[in-house]
Amino acid sequence: MEQSSDQEISSPSKLEIHVSKKSRFLLWIWFLMTISIFIIIIFFIIFIRIQSVFFVLDDKPNIETTIISQRSTRATRVKLMSTEMITSKPSNISRVIPCNPLKFSKYSSYSTGRTPWSLSSGHLDEDPYLDIVVVFRSIATFRLYYGIGNGTFQPEKEYGNYPYPVYVAVKDINHDNKSDIIIPFLGIETIGIFINRGSRSFSSIEKHYTGYYQIDYYPYWIDISDFNHNSLLDAVVVNGHDASVTIFYDYSNSNFTYTKIYPTGHDCIAVSIADFDNDTYKDFAVTDYSDNTISVYINDKNGFFKRRKKYQAGVAPWGMTTADLNNDQFADIIVANHGSSIVSVLFNDGQGHFYKRDTYYIGGRPMPVAVADLNNDSFMDIIASNYKDNFIYIFLNNQDGTFLPYQTFQTDPEILAIITGDFNLDGKIDIAVTSEGKDTLNILLNLC
Fold first, then answer.
1. Which residues cross the membrane (predicted)?
2. Which of 51-55, 78-82, 268-272, 305-309 has the lowest mean pLDDT?
């Protein structure tokens, strides 16, 4: 009986041993699986790292895409710097800027009428030299200065006797291959058009009224383009006292077909046309002097404009121009701020929005601002003045949309207007300004 009892006890013991072996086997399988998963994870991480290294090494297209699509945000600048550091490129690349410092001739001076408020250039006769038109606010006339070679000009007789011309544009408005003269006259609420008849002669004034119902619109600044793609030119003029712009559509046979008025900020002064959203339809922007803003108007692809978008400028923004400053194919906005002694640069994000703003101090009371590639490096530079002294201030582009410290060049005092052009046909961009302090036209020839 005892023996049988022993056998009964030994049987369960074998079962336990069998179960124990099975458990150890399962435990071993679990351990191998865990190790395998861990090895796979390590391999996957190594693979990702290797792929990222190859991606960064071939990063040039990606850097360019980042610059084009998101340059306007601070986060993008950090991302771009980080990418450059990974690829062993310094974040502050040392560039060789051509013709730095700039070189200009001593300015030549031509007498004008009192208060030479604005000027513009174009080919007003049959020779290849650029000519200049200057309007005089105090004596209600304008004068032509014909280029005669070597950057020199021949003053001609004054035209008109219409109250208070404040701005002038030169454009072939009737498509006859001759540049015409377009002037807002604030005293008679009129855009005056003078058609070029050739041989240095012009038609009598065509009057196109900017306002209705005897409102004192105070037309000030004008720009011209084709907003609706019908090959007929349109004009946009700011109405300073009405806080609006009037757009004249489809000039043909000495008339515009219709007009439309859009609201702006208070005491608007300047207008500049550009294609801000790259849809081939022209948009425009306006400086709102009393609101310290600029207003941007985007074309709806029918020649009409969406509700304005406001962006902060400096104090009392006055003059304005547009250009692609960082070569990202998007038009940026440059503003001279009369009340804060600075020039503002507002960068386009590619969709017609302007959220990034840089400022450059020049002092005094800035009024006009212009842009041109002065050192022939394919980047646009900025020219401004502060009215309180007798210099122009030039900011050379650092070849990335930022600008080097300004360089100054002497002129007559109290600069009211600035334009640029190749006045002596040497392939270099020259500068012309008007001085209220001396009632003169100054020409500075580029020697770079």
1. 25-48
2. 78-82
Domain ranges of the chain: 108-444
**Interhelix angle 60-70/74-86, nearest 10 degrees:** 170
CB 294: neighbour CB atoms within 10 A? 27
Instruction: Please state, in angstroms and rounded to a whole number, the distance separating the CA atoms of residues 431 and 371.
Output: 10
What is the residue type of 96?
Answer: V
E strands of 307-439, at which residues? 309-312, 317-323, 332-337, 342-347, 356-361, 369-372, 381-384, 391-395, 407-410, 415-421, 430-435
Alpha-carbon distance of 303 to 220, in angstroms, equals 22
Q: What percent of the chain has pLDDT over 90?
A: 70
What DSSP string describes 74-87?
Answer: HHHHHHHHHHHHHT
Peptide bond into 101 cis (omega under 30): yes
Tokens read off for 438: 């001396």
Length of the chain: 448
As beta bridge partners, residue 143 has 134, 158
**What end-to-end distance do the CA atoms of the chain give, in Å?**
123
Determine the Cα–Cα distance for residues 156 and 201; give it in Å rounded to an integer.
11
Contact by Cβ (8 Å): 145, 131? yes
pTM of the model: 0.78
143-167 residue pLDDT tens: 999 999 999 999 888 887 888 899 9
**Token couple for 416:** 């009211």
- The reported pLDDT for the residue numbered 22 is 59
* Contact criterion met (CB below 8 Å) for 196 and 174: no
CATH topology of domain 108-444: Methylamine Dehydrogenase; Chain H (2.130.10)
Contact (CB, 8 A) for 118 and 107: no
User: What DSSP letter does each residue of 173-197 carry, written as one string?
Assistant: TTSSSS-EEEEEEGGGTEEEEE-EE
| Two tokens, residue 44 | 């996957």
Give the amino acid at 83.
Answer: T
